[in-house]
Amino acid sequence: MARPTPLSGFPEWLPDGRVVEQHVLEVLRHTFELHGFAGIETRAVEPLDQLLRKGETSKEVYVLRRLQDEDGDQARGDQRPDKQLGLHFDLTVPFARYVLENAGRLAFPFKRYQIQKVWRGERPQDGRFREFVQADIDVVGAGELPYHYEVELPLVMAEALGALRDVGVPEVRILVNNRKVAEGFYRGLGLDDVEGVLRQVDKLDKIGPDAVAELLQAEQGATPEQAKACLELAGISGADTGVIDRVRALAGSYGAGTDLLETGLAELGALVEAAARRAPGVVVADLKIARGLDYYTGSVYETVLVGHEQLGSICSGGRYDTLASDGKNTYPGVGLSIGVSRLVSRLLSAGLVTATRGVPTAVLVAVADEEHRAQSDAVAAALRSRGIPVDVAPAAAKFGKQIKFADRRGIPFVWFPGQAGEDDVVGPDQVKDIRSGEQKDADASVWTPPEQDLRPRVVPAGE
Amino acid sequence: MARPTPLSGFPEWLPDGRVVEQHVLEVLRHTFELHGFAGIETRAVEPLDQLLRKGETSKEVYVLRRLQDEDGDQARGDQRPDKQLGLHFDLTVPFARYVLENAGRLAFPFKRYQIQKVWRGERPQDGRFREFVQADIDVVGAGELPYHYEVELPLVMAEALGALRDVGVPEVRILVNNRKVAEGFYRGLGLDDVEGVLRQVDKLDKIGPDAVAELLQAEQGATPEQAKACLELAGISGADTGVIDRVRALAGSYGAGTDLLETGLAELGALVEAAARRAPGVVVADLKIARGLDYYTGSVYETVLVGHEQLGSICSGGRYDTLASDGKNTYPGVGLSIGVSRLVSRLLSAGLVTATRGVPTAVLVAVADEEHRAQSDAVAAALRSRGIPVDVAPAAAKFGKQIKFADRRGIPFVWFPGQAGEDDVVGPDQVKDIRSGEQKDADASVWTPPEQDLRPRVVPAGE
């Protein structure tokens, strides 16, 4: 095979990049578990008809076909959407299906985290991949779900992302809004195509306010005054409950107050207030946050990396009431999803975060000659039995070459078994810190590397 | 949506099953890292032409198609195998591609582990899935790879699987053979279609010796005497180097000794000898092990769970010399792959292993009334800050109901904030072990659950 080239949109990391990604995933998982979320995985595929329930995403779905079916099953009618399988494009739709499928065996409210790859056949660009890892948390109730979870879930994400600050991940800002506020306000204005209006407002960052105002008039039949009011609402943001008063005042000035608006404002206010207390400075109410997906019914969330806002949201989600329903029972939920690949890709490409080495190995055991390999293996086994990651030199090359082997990989210590002494004299084992050059006698049954050298660490780049 | 049903061949676990799977994966990963293997992930897709290089597997490949391409790109010729993408069916082919793609940025010999899902469009049956998790280790060299890795890699797997014994995973037996032995012997007999003979011998367990003898004669043109010799070779097995002598004697009796056979026997003997020393009783030379894949060139391995032999191999692999080659450079390797889903599925379905609970949560903090939820949240935060997984009751129901919430999930402790006392009297916090009923005063800044209750544990079922 000729030397292969990368596939655009399908990111892969070198071993040291994978160390960074693994660290991010472990910190996320640890935080999720501290908050009582149970880990699950779902299969990568769903029936195509389920994936297509959300019209907007259909163009992104990858459909699967068994190669051997080419002239077989497919021709015989297996093209029906309920028989075909597609790769999931998020973890929310599969989770909703999992909940319905296992409802009788789960305890509600059910809190789960899920860290898996998803696939979208979009055009690849900076921060947008065709295959990427998401880390989701959701809680779903049976029949009902108390509002307080809409406050707690973004705070869990704030804590998870905050726990990555010390390895060099920038500060995050979680932008929150509430669908009831938007819907109540639009309906109060007399605009009843709420989803249509949201879809236009969602384009604000991309095309600017003038173009959105035009679209609102052209597509949603808004008057110039209604369009202006929508843009004014979208212009409101702030980290304290003063935001609530400003929305209320704006609605009043247009005579657009509704009960739904008041419900939404009470919820949004409670979220902003709790967040200001529990994670000061992290959560900001931003009334232009719309979220494209139409299944959200309450709080919605987006998250930016401070200083990297143009990357787009790295953690989004919201409250949904009708996503998981089997007709008889409904399982309302709220959740957020971190775009791990988008985050890690930026951490690596912007040189924000680095791994101290790309191998787990703390010690390389040298081999004096192939006849004594078994002794090096025994040293390695003794060190490993105490949890120290060890490799044994691949060949009994000159010691300088073996040290270079360690150096190339960032392995900090090289161990010389005593049996490796010249003239076959059995001396004590020695271990060399190849960074300082310091070499001293050591006993494989007790020697331990300094804690910071035991495993690769993830640190701010340049540290 | 109607209540969905499982998709045959696409296994999913309930949360407590996932705890078992996670534990298995963590033990494997820990062992691999102790031995200096670096973790990588590759994308799930490869160009179809790369996946089809091994003819045997082509019928199993899932091909991807972007839904929006239906009448677009595909019709314009994107059906070419080098443009189409398929899901990988193992982790060896993607790893070989990763090595070639990144050869200039990797240090050789390169040891990596890789734990990911793979997909095969086979007919699902017990232990055979269409989507499953594999855990692979491989080491590849640039140009050359010393034989000792063929000894070490199965021993790493023996250690990894052995580390699972104490949670209830049965003993394993690693069956080893060497392609050079088989090839040398067959050629010595005068049978030159070595791959053909191997393919027939590989059917021994399925169709029995008589049928294999017939096939050898009908398909490979063997004489009855040659067929008999092949079956006699396949009948040899044993855990010590006596096996080597028996093969040599058999070859001698047929006048089938060759240099290649001797090379293979020396390798196989070294493996059996080292294994008997380093992992007594685990490795058995079994001359009938053939492995279907034709890229193996030296040692080959299969692994059975003792008492569950009919499940088939749960960990297989071998030495390959030409899998990764860009024409100019070749990267010979050796590796093994654990079928994690097959193993976990058996552990769960046979009731061998169980998790003490399906949630990470060690403590449920009760909520006396919604006005005091913030105090329960504060208790939870204090406990979490010391690494204790905590959940807060979803609603301020009667305490009996909140205790039942914990009980249903296997959460061992329920915490009652002092503020929850009757008549709003602020007493000390109390924590109740709901298994024993014992309840005592506790301080959220210092109290810690017993180590064995901190996280869900994986234990032999029935313990």
Automatic annotation (TrEMBL), chains A, B:
It holds the Pfam family HGTP_anticodon. Belongs to the class-II aminoacyl-tRNA synthetase family. The keyword ATP-binding applies. It catalyses: tRNA(His) + L-histidine + ATP = L-histidyl-tRNA(His) + AMP + diphosphate + H(+). Homodimer. GO terms for molecular function: histidine-tRNA ligase activity. Keywords: Aminoacyl-tRNA synthetase, ATP-binding, Cytoplasm, Ligase, Nucleotide-binding, Protein biosynthesis. Its EC number is 6.1.1.21. The keyword Transcription does not apply. The lineage of its organism: Bacteria, Bacillati, Actinomycetota, Actinomycetes, Micrococcales. InterPro entries: aa-tRNA-synth_II, aa-tRNA-synth_II/BPL/LPL, Anticodon-bd, Anticodon-bd_dom_sf, His-tRNA-ligase, HisRS-like_core, HisRS/HisZ. SUPFAM superfamilies: Class II aaRS ABD-related, Class II aaRS and biotin synthetases. It comes from Isoptericola luteus. Residues 15-360 form the Aminoacyl-transfer RNA synthetases class-II family profile domain. It is an enzyme of class 6 (ligase). This is Histidine--tRNA ligase. Residues 435-463 are annotated as: Disordered.
